[in-house]
Amino acid sequence: MIRPLLAxxxxxxxxxxxxxxxCEAHLVVTRQPQQLLVASGVCRSLLGxxxxxxxQLVAERWGRSRxxxxxxxxxxxxxxxxxxxxxxxxNLGPTDHYLLRLRVYDAAGQLVAQDSVRQAP
Length: 121
What we know:
Elements: H1 2-14, E1 23-32, E2 36-45, E3 51-62, E4 67-77, E5 82-91, E6 97-105, E7 111-119
Antiparallel strand pairs: 1-2, 2-5, 3-4, 3-6, 6-7
């Protein structure tokens, strides 16, 4: 409950338009066997009408080596619809740390929602 509320407040503070954010974004992160981390970016529309969004999911890892991957695209969400935007997998060693960042933009290219997860070794 607090995380979605915080995302709404942060999204509204960074947006040039008045009112609440039109959507909320969050990362779903799970650890798998073999030192794998799976992250899914999810967006839920808070509007009573369809809207088009652009998104970007970035995964960065530092430690024994460095890697960066980025996925992005466009999605149209129906009224109050939730959808998975992208999914990525990160292979982590015992001394690695990572940053996952999901950003969602409206049709005009303005940032409307975001979430991030970071882990230091």
